[in-house]
Amino acid sequence: MSFASQNFSPEIVRALTECGYEKLTPIQAQAIPHARRGSDILANAQTGTGKTAAFSLPIIQQILEKPKSRGRFNVRALILAPTRELAAQIAQNIAEYTKYTDLKTAAIYGGTKMSSQERTLEKGVDILVATPGRLIEHVDLKNVSLANIEFLVFDEADRMLDMGFITDMRKVMGEVNTNPQIMMFSATSSKQMNALASDILRKPKRIMVDRENTTADTVSHVVYPVDQERKRELLSELIGKKNWKQVLVFVNYKETANELVKELKKDGIKAVLCHGDKAQSARRRALDEFKEGKARVMVATEVAARGLDIQALPHVVNFDMPFLAEDYVHRIGRTGRAGLKGHAISFVSKEEELTLVQVEQLIGQRIHRVQLLGYEPANRDAFVQKMNTKAAFKDRKGRTNNPTEQQSSSERRVRLRQAIKGKAKITTLKK
């Protein structure tokens, strides 16, 4: 099915053609018709499947069909994303889709000056892409009004909940006085996200492209058992011996990232950093160097797991296994995109065996183990056998998202819908 068959305006079709878009992806084929009809949507699809076009193109088309003059501080469509990188990527994509229209798109997120964002917002925008925290700052300062929005999108909604943005998400809903079309997109599912969807969506169309919490078929998975203190050495050896040219490496802590980059450089491997302590401009430069091949490795914390669009990225390495099994899906979603082959490599110490078990249960497959000669972990088999005899190991669940409110689902639904209509304010959770 082609984009030209979806009755988009000639301006949109022209832009999509220049972007190289031809056939709709499965998520686009299922979501676009429902979104064009104005239905609320709850969609689960693995990362890298074209979700941005799935929710943004119908919004763009509907705005073009009902042109309005921009009011000061006014917004017609709001798209919320959990990270700066994802917000910037979404805004860039939408700018490409609307290049032959007069629609105005803006992105606001932390790490950039409030004053420049304020000037942009004052003139009014058609489509605003924002991270929750920075948006609330502007709302509190009266720099933007959400009262009349017509479209609201929560992209990577599961990640926003896991990052603690539930309060901000509910506050956003409380600022809306209309009944906007609402779409929630995510790669994974959770009880809390489903409860939130039940609260705010009106008879949503449920779309599931793949089994929830699955990974792309184009990604091959492998695990290297190794002691924690030998992971850096193993990474350098694999990069050198296998001649990996472009490797995105995930770690759990900023300190680990800093140290790893230093050690890789000592081994003659050019590496760059991407984590929360780095300024937005520094993170952007690091990503550009990595994309352009000036750096062979980019070491990142979870902040980079969403929103990074690196074409044909061949290798993602979990230097540390993620704290939350679902984050494995998000991390490796940076490779194997658009039908291309990708490789997900995980270094697993004996202390991380529990996480590995949880990941395998989540994705529904056993990951192939490779024991590299000279890197055999000490006493691993004895440790695993011992842990498997304990119920706490076998039955333990991964870390959950934020706890749900102590209200019943029906109570939450009533209060949220009232808030949307401007009849009541929402009592938000305390941080």
TrEMBL record:
<dbReference type="InterPro" id="IPR001650">
    <property type="entry name" value="Helicase_C-like"/>
</dbReference>
<dbReference type="InterPro" id="IPR014014">
    <property type="entry name" value="RNA_helicase_DEAD_Q_motif"/>
</dbReference>
<dbReference type="Pfam" id="PF00271">
    <property type="entry name" value="Helicase_C"/>
</dbReference>
<dbReference type="Pfam" id="PF00270">
    <property type="entry name" value="DEAD"/>
</dbReference>
<feature type="short sequence motif" description="Q motif">
    <location>
        <begin position="1"/>
        <end position="29"/>
    </location>
</feature>
<feature type="domain" description="Helicase ATP-binding">
    <location>
        <begin position="32"/>
        <end position="207"/>
    </location>
</feature>
<dbReference type="GO" id="GO:0003724">
    <property type="term" value="F:RNA helicase activity"/>
</dbReference>
<feature type="compositionally biased region" description="Polar residues">
    <location>
        <begin position="400"/>
        <end position="409"/>
    </location>
</feature>
<feature type="region of interest" description="Disordered">
    <location>
        <begin position="393"/>
        <end position="414"/>
    </location>
</feature>
<dbReference type="InterPro" id="IPR050079">
    <property type="entry name" value="DEAD_box_RNA_helicase"/>
</dbReference>
<dbReference type="InterPro" id="IPR044742">
    <property type="entry name" value="DEAD/DEAH_RhlB"/>
</dbReference>
<dbReference type="GO" id="GO:0016787">
    <property type="term" value="F:hydrolase activity"/>
</dbReference>
<keyword id="KW-0067">ATP-binding</keyword>
<dbReference type="GO" id="GO:0003676">
    <property type="term" value="F:nucleic acid binding"/>
</dbReference>
<dbReference type="InterPro" id="IPR014001">
    <property type="entry name" value="Helicase_ATP-bd"/>
</dbReference>
<keyword id="KW-0378">Hydrolase</keyword>
<dbReference type="InterPro" id="IPR011545">
    <property type="entry name" value="DEAD/DEAH_box_helicase_dom"/>
</dbReference>
<keyword id="KW-0547">Nucleotide-binding</keyword>
<dbReference type="GO" id="GO:0005829">
    <property type="term" value="C:cytosol"/>
</dbReference>
<keyword id="KW-0347">Helicase</keyword>
<protein>
    <submittedName>
        <fullName>ATP-dependent RNA helicase</fullName>
    </submittedName>
</protein>
<dbReference type="InterPro" id="IPR027417">
    <property type="entry name" value="P-loop_NTPase"/>
</dbReference>
<dbReference type="InterPro" id="IPR000629">
    <property type="entry name" value="RNA-helicase_DEAD-box_CS"/>
</dbReference>
<comment type="similarity">
    <text>Belongs to the DEAD box helicase family.</text>
</comment>
<feature type="domain" description="DEAD-box RNA helicase Q">
    <location>
        <begin position="1"/>
        <end position="29"/>
    </location>
</feature>
<dbReference type="GO" id="GO:0005524">
    <property type="term" value="F:ATP binding"/>
</dbReference>
<feature type="domain" description="Helicase C-terminal">
    <location>
        <begin position="234"/>
        <end position="378"/>
    </location>
</feature>
